[in-house]
Amino acid sequence: MTETNPNEIVIVKSENSKINTVDFSNLIFGRVFTDHMFVCDFEDGKWQTPQIMPYQAMTIEPSARVFHYGQAVFEGMKAYKDENGKIFLFRPNENCNRINKSAARLAMPKFPEDYFFKGLETLLRLDSEWIKPGVGNSLYIRPFVIATEPAISASPAASYRFIIICSPAKAYYNEPVRVLFAEKYSRSADGGVGFAKAAGNYAAQFYPTSLAQKKGFDQIIWTDASSHKYLEEAGTMNIFFRIHDKLITAPNNDRILDGVTRKSVIQLAKDLGIECEVRRVSVKEIKAAAKDGSLKEIFGTGTAAVISPVSAFEHADDVFEIDQIKDSYASLFKSTLLDIQHNLSDDKHGWRYEIR
Amino acid sequence: MTETNPNEIVIVKSENSKINTVDFSNLIFGRVFTDHMFVCDFEDGKWQTPQIMPYQAMTIEPSARVFHYGQAVFEGMKAYKDENGKIFLFRPNENCNRINKSAARLAMPKFPEDYFFKGLETLLRLDSEWIKPGVGNSLYIRPFVIATEPAISASPAASYRFIIICSPAKAYYNEPVRVLFAEKYSRSADGGVGFAKAAGNYAAQFYPTSLAQKKGFDQIIWTDASSHKYLEEAGTMNIFFRIHDKLITAPNNDRILDGVTRKSVIQLAKDLGIECEVRRVSVKEIKAAAKDGSLKEIFGTGTAAVISPVSAFEHADDVFEIDQIKDSYASLFKSTLLDIQHNLSDDKHGWRYEIR
Ligand SMILES: Cc1ncc(COP(=O)(O)O)c(C=O)c1O
Ligand SMILES: Cc1ncc(COP(=O)(O)O)c(C=O)c1O
């Protein structure tokens, strides 16, 4: 499948950089893109010569299968720049593996690891000016794959396009979020595609989330679809609960995304001597802990927001406010992660990946 | 929302028809499209002036939300031509209502009914040569809506495109199909989007279906995700079971598509004096009926295939062959439906909709 040599990326540089038109102190997430994009087509059973080209609109048939059957997967990762101008990714192997797990579940071809890294690194070097130093600044990287075959039969496509686009970012959420525990709607089924970053998983959450927003909540914490008794994850974050000084988070399964930030937090907890149980978490337990005062924190983990503290939750019309404590685990993990990501601290697990 | 007058469709006709390049006796489903397409954009909170233009590739940003979050819904319907050249649709109101139900579940704007009909009718009149008379021939019509806003935040888009493309068709499946009852994978969750024609529901089925195909089965009959004990529907068909002379089909719920063919068959059964129970159907019951000989037929219903008889099913490594009987309900419903669709019989329920 990798007959083409990824070293032969065909590069067409943009003639005019847009960078001076961008207000980096005032970025809305995901609206501004860098000067270049990486594109690689899958045709005739193999990935063709990869290309880097000016960021631009694509030409695509209205019958392309992605529009009809949602055969599309994606990733989300970030690049960081330290004060010396060095550029780092955070555990990029995890994203490379995960996009291929997602692809396999949607009957899409694997994208070769060497193409992934070669393409990403070449792109980041070209657009390195777009990565601003300083904690909180980053370049959000969006690799994705879409089914392009122009034929509307409901079966896996024969042609695909792998693309990487990049968008300069500040932290995704700045404020603590108010969340609603799902009682009626669900995000994914046992035996479904919830563990994959499959495009369709996200649109499915928009309507229930809009209902939650009308009630004054920012996001939904999804529960298991069968009983709605167990807390699983949020729309783009895994979820941790702190009861007394112990952390609890739901185990991975075929409904829950295996988050890179989640697994990093579990490791950091171990390093820091914080007990972390990976097990089912019931709504009942969390409500009881909120009532008796032992629930100290809830926070979400994800690449976009890093760590997102929760300030309130609702379930069955009961609303619980969670006081934001000083010395929270949320802020501890956030600063620990940011320091590793921005090359400000030791990297004993080898999570940083330098782009040279 | 409907400030624009749908009568003002802007029409750009194709200069050269492709119709003479098409072998109508040798059509592969969904690969060839007619000369024109209908397009209407949603911008600034409203649907803009609709357009009919030559069928062509579109220009779309790589950041368009449909590629990332699967915010896309579709419909499938058919146009038929009788021997006098009259053109008919079959219960098109159902499709118009359903695409808007699907859209609502995916937090997408409603497409106005007058736009839908005006656009569809104008398009069909322009491309009427593509609809061939004769039972079995039809023009498959694919209305769909995609989120076009070029911004990758995981929330409902602000801009959309509604499109109709049309593809000449023969019957989708010709042979009876062999099916596998799902034991591990699932199609949709309670509280999910299974009832909607949401793009992502379809890609999610490709991989499990490919596993079934490796075992020699054409399709999967999905079971409920919680217990896998109850039979729900196939990938693009609802399912009926005939035990002795009685039909049984699963009730609609938020996991199952409310099929137009299904509801027509339920009505026709009533007209023909055939008992039809709409209730949960257990795997156990169907296996027992297959063993004791009371299971006479299983068939699927859907716009593409009309009625698709099942010749075998597998569950838990038990394979049951179903002898194809003469005077089957499947063939009775198929010919009854085709006759109504092709204006060959009375239409006492007013299901035909003539395009004038
Ligand atoms: C459904 C879901 N859960 C959790 C996460 C967090 O994963 P990660 O930490 O790898 O960004 C994401 C976002 O990437 C997600 O989409
Ligand atoms: C999941 C699913 N079930 C059933 C059907 C059959 O519905 P209809 O009879 O309206 O074509 C379809 C196809 O349209 C479908 O996609």
Element layout with pairings:
The structure is a homodimer of 356-residue chains.
Chain A: E1 10-11, E2 36-43, E3 46-47, E4 51-54, E5 58-60, H1 65-69, E6 72-74, E7 77-81, E8 87-90, H2 92-105, H3 113-126, E9 138-147, E10 160-169, E11 177-181, H4 199-214, E12 219-223, E13 231-234, E14 238-243, E15 246-249, H5 260-272, E16 276-278, H6 283-292, E17 295-302, E18 306-315, E19 318-321, H7 329-341, E20 352-355
Parallel strand pairs in A: 1-4, 11-12, 11-18, 15-16
Antiparallel strand pairs in A: 2-3, 2-4, 2-10, 6-9, 7-8, 7-9, 8-20, 9-10, 12-13, 14-15, 14-17, 17-18, 18-19
Bound molecules: pyridoxal-5'-phosphate (PLP) (2 copies).
CATH superfamily of the largest domain in chain A, by name, is Aminotransferase class 4, branched-chain amino acid transferase, N-terminal domain
Main beta sheet of chain A: 10 strands, mixed
The CATH topology of the largest domain in chain A is what?
D-amino Acid Aminotransferase, Chain A, domain 1
Radius of gyration of chain A: 21 Å
Which molecules are bound besides the chains? pyridoxal-5'-phosphate
Low-confidence stretches of chain A: none
Mean pLDDT of chain A: 96
How much beta of chain A, percentage-wise? 25-35%
* CA-based shape of chain A: globular
List the quaternary state of the chains: homodimer
**Derived structural class of chain A:** alpha+beta
The most extensive contact between chains is: A-B, 69 and 69 residues
Instruction: Write down the CATH class of the largest domain in chain A.
Output: Alpha Beta
If helices are DSSP runs of H or I spanning 4 or more residues, what is the number of helices of chain A? 7
Number of beta-strand segments of chain A:
20
Order of helices and strands of chain A: EEEEEHEEEHHEEEHEEEEHEHEEEHE
Total number of distinct structural domains of chain A: 2
The portion of residues assigned to helices of chain A is 10-25%
